[in-house]
Amino acid sequence: MEARDGTAPRVERPPRGEFFGLTLMISATAYLGFSLTYFGPVLTGAYPDVSPAVHVHGWSFFLWYALLPAQAGLVRARKLAAHRVLGYASVLLATLMVFTGVLVLGTQMDRALGPGGNGFWLFLGPAVFASLLLFAGFYGAAIWARNRPAEHKRHIVLASAGGLGAATFRILGSAFGFATWAQVAGVLAPNLFLIAAILIDRRRGRTLHPVLRMGLPVSVLATVVALLIVPTAAGRWVSEFLALFGRVLAPLY
Asked: Which residue, of 28, 95, 146, 151, is most buried by count of CB atoms within 10 Å of its CB?
């Protein structure tokens, strides 16, 4: 059947599955990393007694990364109404993830700055904070671009990779020991997923999308700066700032 202008009608093709596959790999990485130090011990009863805030953070994290491929799958199946409904749940989970993440991180930084503080948090605390900022910033941009699918899905990929550093450094740490190089490589490793997203676009014959062109260097730079400032006065200020969050929000911990 021809269109009114005499041309053949445009056939709608289902979206390809590369981005859906990418979200599956991101979520699998998140679950692998946290199964080693959180989900596994919790499910076997071996996790120590901690604040409920830690568990709210862990399980909101779990559910958000469960929704990630589910949402991508709904878009691929063109079930956009269900995608929008689950989007509200995603916003709630993301809010819980960031708030409890800041609460837990602030508490750990406050303890680390005290006598006999944990050097692990003093070194990686700013980078963990950077990952929370990347997740929140890119996720907020994804919500703002929700009516522009090409931008929206790439911002979601940026956000999901931004929040993944805590999982990837656990994977490398468990495999090779928590040496400095493994911690640094671990918090930088999520950027490989952004490179994968760029390669997906290139494979389809597309030019580099502006969202990824901006997002990859921002993600790398934020993490590198967070690591480099640790021994400086700026790093000390960031640590004190995070510790202040812990002290102010202590009643909620």
From this structure: 151
Q: How many CA atoms lie within 13 A of 227 on its CB side?
A: 17
Burial class (CB in 10 A: 0-12, 13-18, 19+), 49: exposed
CA distance linking residue 250 with residue 1, whole number of Å? 68
- Rounded Cα–Cα distance for residues 247 and 107 (Å): 7
pLDDT digits (tens, 9 = 90+) for 163-208: 999 899 899 988 888 888 999 999 999 999 999 999 998 888 788 8
pLDDT digits (tens, 9 = 90+) for 39-67: 889 888 889 999 999 999 999 999 999 99
Residue 240, token pair as written in the block: 């004190």
Q: How long is the chain? A: 253
Torsion angle, CA of 36/39/42/43, rounded to 10 degrees?
Answer: -110
Name the DSSP letter for residue 114.
S
This prediction's pTM: 0.89
Residue 57 CA to residue 104 CA, distance in Å, equals 8
- The secondary structure of residue 13, as a DSSP letter, is P
Query: Which one-letter DSSP state was computed for residue 113?
Result: T
Residue pair 178/120 in contact by the 8 Å Cβ criterion: yes
Contacts of 115 (CB under 8 A, 6+ apart): none
